[in-house]
Amino acid sequence: MGKDKALLPFAGGTLAAHVARIVAEAAGSAIVIGDPEKYRGLGYAVRPDRTPGAGPLGGIESALGYTAADWNLVVACDMPAVSAPFLRSLIETAERLNTDALVPCGPAGRPEPLSAVYHRRCHAALRAALDAGVRKVTDALNGLRVTAWTVDHTECFMNLNTPEEWLRHHDAH
Q1: What confidence tier does 158 reach under pLDDT thresholds 50, 70, 90?
Q2: ∠ Cα 12 14 17 (to 5°)
Q3: Every domain of the chain and the residues it spans
Q4: Are 157 and 79 in contact, with CB atoms under 8 Å apart?
Q5: pTM for the whole thing?
Q6: Taking 50 as the threshold, does the pLDDT of residue 10 lie above it?
Q7: Which of 36, 97, 123, 165 is least surrounded by CB atoms within 10 angstroms?
């Protein structure tokens, strides 16, 4: 993208604030993992990434390290099409299952670990994976009870990686 996607203008605010609002609507609250100085104006609590440079896995581990909640919704800041009803259904399904994480998959079976629900008991395993040099989220989940949840639609998983994608989606809002 060439710039911080989280701070791109979107829906009258920023992309990160838009996604955080949807997460808060679904889960009751939202925190942003990142640089508190950089993201303090978003209107949500911001906690620093405990392993900067470790990518999304570091963000998930950080969130689970800070939380007091058993179940935690994790959503990447560049998924503007995610909806509160979908996220709520993820949380409700995870709470009913005997699992450590509920990871949605599209019809092709591709897991979407950046739009998933994690129990805080995953924290130690994710920390150990980070310490061992693992950076891929799905690799870090090995050994945990992960339930794949197939969904019919994949629009909500669309993330914005190029200026063209951002412009196309930004113009729709």
Answers
A1: low
A2: 100
A3: 5-172
A4: yes
A5: 0.88
A6: yes
A7: 36
